[in-house]
Amino acid sequence: MKKDNFTYTTNPNNGTIESRGFLEVTKGDHTGMPKRTDASPEFYERGHTNASSHGGGNHTLNIHPQAKDLNHGAYYTMEQGERDALKSGAVFSEK
User: Fold this and answer.
1) C-alpha distances in angstroms, 92 versus 2, 6, 11, 42?
2) What is the end-to-end Cα distance of the chain in Å, rounded?
C-alpha cells in the first residue's frame, strides 16, 4: 500500500510491517494522529516509524506504541542524525 513517501507491506506470516521509500526533510506534523487504543496503552506514546519530519504520515501503518524515553531519547537522536545528513546532501533510499 502506497502512503505518504513510503510503500508499506505487511508480512502475512507474522504481521510485521515493512516500509520502503525516500526520506526527506519536512516540517513535522502530528495532525490527525490515530487515537489511543488498547494496543497503544496510556503509558506509551504514539510514535512514528518514519518520522513526520522525514515525510512519514500520521496513519496507522506508520504509528506504533513507543516508550516515552525511547521516543524522546535514542529514536529522536537517530532522527536528528538523519535530518543532519539529509541537510548535508545525503540520500536515504530503498535498495
Assistant:
1) 18, 12, 23, 33
2) 18
pTM, full prediction:
0.76
Q: Grid coordinates in use for 35?
A: 487515537
Residue 52 · residue 28 · CB < 8 Å: yes
The grid cell for 2 is 502506497
Instruction: Measure the CA dihedral 89/23/26/59, to 10°.
Output: 180
> 64: which strand partners?
47
- pLDDT tens, position by position, 8-27: 999 999 988 888 888 889 99
How many other C-beta atoms can be found within 10 angstroms of the C-beta atom of residue 5? Answer: 17
How far apart (Å, rounded) are the C-alpha atoms in residues 46 and 36?
8
